[in-house]
Design a protein that fits this description.
By secondary structure, the protein is an alpha/beta fold. It contains ten helices and 14 strands.
Amino acid sequence: MNEMLTLSELQLLIRDSLYLSLPDMYWVKAEITEIRENYNGHCYLELVEKNSGDTNVKARVRAVIWNNRYRFIKTYFENSAGESLKAGMKILVKVRIEYHEIYGLSLAINDIDPAFTIGEMAMKRQQILKKLEDEGVLNMNKEIEFPFIPQRIAIISSRSAAGYTDFMKHLSGNSNGYVFYSSLFEAPLQGSDTERGIISALERIAGHIENFDVVVIIRGGGSQTDLSWFDNYNIAYFITQFPVPVITGIGHEKDLSVTDIVAHRSLKTPTAVADFLVECMLNAENYIIEISNELTDRSLKIIEQTKEWMISAKMKLIPLARIMISGFREELSSTLVNMISTGKEYVHRAKLIPESQKGRLSSGMRSIINNSGSLISGFSQSTVKNSKNFILSRGKTLAGYENSLKILDPVNVLNRGYTITSMKGKIIKDSVELKEDDQIETRFRDGTIKSRVV
């Protein structure tokens, strides 16, 4: 063909050919990767097809839902599926092929099948649960022993969320007056940041795990779309590995999310979680009271049995005690008679001892006195002799000390021609003790002189 076409003519030829070849509407399944609404009420999407189990894109096309259909499709889909259209969702839509000479190929969506999306969401949930089950971790958090008194609570929620406010009001205002210690770890509970926020909060709690008995994840009610963020493998896996029980109160009553399923316990609302914790405290208190009453009853029974035993023992012991006392009396009487008889014999013998001992003592004393007189006389003579010798020896020693003192007397030293030099009353022994201009005094036998050192 040698005919020359302009670009616009070629585009129109393509459009007409498409319309002629594909004039009908077609049901197409695809995944939404982008979705946005513009100010005119139109909804623009980007649809893709991926290989099963792969992230690689197999096909891609732009799509649009014009505002006159979008209002109907949006309401119908949300009421049926409980979800809003969002990125990452798989949909089955009825489309018409459109081709624009400037914008190219696109699909105009005319209808949608919510049942397909619901099935895909359920399938996704089942796939996550099956993977957790295959890994052997699905029920790990449920297997942790729940604390007897769950009093220290780590809360994952948003401070501004109504669910958090209701939870704290029920917890702190409980009619039993139980005191709970709670700490809030804020995290987004909807949107694409949900996974990162919840895992980050769990990591922070794990860093102080010794301070907490349980973890609660709470939020108020919301659409199925808001709650679908909890159908997340990473969040679920982190909960299965957590060392303390995790309780969820995410605020929906329809299908349980994967997070609810793997948690130790799932409750419908945040207030239900608070009531459950209060009930646990009440059960603990009742159990303690029951144990206390049982201990009291058993103690009273033991005391009563002991009293009966003591009374019985008393009745048995009284006759035995009387027999024993009677036996002791007979033994004492016999012993007393023997003691009196023995005592008389000893007294009779004792009268004979003093007479015989008296002669012996007199003879012994005379001998001791005679011997002592001889010892005293000898000791007296020895003492006089030793004293004289000691006095003579000390006299000679004192005479020697006297001669030494006379020789060392300074007057005698001066008489022998020596001098004594002093400065300020201190005797100078070495020349190094003096310095220039010092005033010194020299003493002779017949007087003193003063000098200056030069």
